[in-house]
Structure formats: C-alpha cells, structure tokens
Design goal:
The longest helix is centred in the first third of the chain and has 32 residues, at about 15-50. Strand 8 and strand 9 (about 215-220) form a beta hairpin. Helix content is about 45%, strand content about 25%. It is globular, with a radius of gyration of 19 Å. It is α+β, with helices and mostly antiparallel strands and about 220 residues long.
C-alpha cells in the first residue's frame, strides 16, 4: 500500500455576479469597519469624559483611525472598484501611493521599483490584489518588493514578500485558479478568487512560489 496521500480534489467555483458583488462588498466592509468603529469609540469618549489627557487620546485615536479608513477605501476603489471608465488606464504612481498608505506601517516595508507609467486598469487592479495576497503571507511583518515592466503590451509583474515565518496564504493557488475543495467560496476567499478573475480578464498568468521565508508572486502576459 502506498503512503503517498492523494492530492485534494479541486472543483470549479460556481459563483453568479450577484454573489460575487455581495462577497466583495463584505470584504471591503470587513476592512473598513475596524477603523470606523474606533472613530465612533473616540467620539463617545469625547462626549463622556472631559479630562484633557483623555480628550487628547481620543482625538489622536480618531485622527489615526480616519486616516486608516481613508487609506483602505482609496485602495479598495482601485483594487475592486471601477476607478475610471471602461478601458481606462491608471497611473502607477497612484497605485504606489494607495499601496503604501494601506499596507506600509511599522511592521511592513514597501519597496516600490515599478516605473511611473500608465497601465491598463485591469493590470493595475491585478497588481494591487496580488499585493494583498503578498501581505497576507507575512503576518509578522517584513518587506514587500514590487517590480514591473511593460513593453508592447507585454507586462511582467514580480512581487516578493519576505518576513519571519512567512507562509503561503491558505488555498491561494486554487482560488486564483477558480477552484476550491467544495466548489464554493466565502468572504475569506473571495479576494484571491477575484484576483484570478482579474488576471484572466487582463490576459495574465499568475504563479506563486514559497521557499524559506519568501513568497514570490509572478504575473506575465500570456
């Protein structure tokens, strides 16, 4: 008898447009609810406590949380939203700005080596969604390096995420391919699944490789 386990069966995910929209909305709300809730808590403190030190703390909390909420919404607008008319191009400088505002903090450093140029909207959306997957691989922090080239319609994206105890995000490869163990999907997996949809819509093939403390994500025009 062989001791080699059979690979898990992967089934195509069946998802209609209404469910896709609902799950993406749930994902965006999940990202924004925390800083918005902190703003509400800070306002309640301002109303209930007149101590100057407490008031200063509440104002600092409100200011920081408002910046976080704004950064997350601006990122979501480019990564998931229309961000311009059909067929529009997006400035990679804008993509860099929203990425650093959203992902870069005391734990995560973004090294942006992509040139500043106009790139097709879906390819920018793909880049941003791949960055979310990269960030999920370094839950204890680290460095994400972004490089990109584009010539004659052929685009190559390379992202490395390096940090202690990094990991391959669960089911990311299958979800990007449009598959899951059950053929279903929930709000936790929708972002990776959506990444695969955007990749195919933009004519890009995505690969993920994890070795040691580094996740390497590549996307190239097919």
């Amino acid at each position: 008898m062989s001791d080699v386990a059979s690979p898990p069966i992967a089934l195509p995910i069946a998802l209609d447009s209404l469910d896709l929209a609902a799950l993406l909305c749930s994902r965006v709300c999940h990202d924004v609810i925390s800083p918005v809730g902190a703003i509400v808590n800070g306002l309640e403190v301002l109303d209930d406590d007149s101590d100057q030190e407490t008031q200063d703390f509440a104002l600092a909390l409100i200011r920081k949380s408002a910046q976080q909420a704004s950064a997350r919404l601006q990122f979501a607008r480019l990564a998931f939203g229309a961000a311009g008319s059909a067929g529009a191009s997006i400035d990679l400088g804008d993509a860099e700005q929203v990425t650093k505002s959203f992902l870069q903090d005391d734990k995560v450093q973004i090294v942006w080596q992509a040139p500043r140029l106009l790139l097709a909207k879906n390819k920018v959306k793909l880049l941003l969604n791949l960055l979310v997957i990269a960030a999920a691989s370094i839950v204890r922090g680290g460095t994400i390096t972004v490089s990109l080239s584009d010539s004659d319609g052929q685009t190559a994206i390379s992202i490395t995420a390096q940090g202690p105890n990094s990991r391959m995000p669960p089911h990311a490869v299958a979800l990007i391919a449009g598959e899951s163990a059950t053929g279903g999907i929930d709000a936790h997996g929708i972002q990776a699944y959506y990444t695969g949809l955007v990749a195919r819509a933009s004519g890009m093939a995505v690969t993920l490789e994890h070795a040691g403390d580094t996740l390497t994500i590549s996307a190239r025009s097919t």
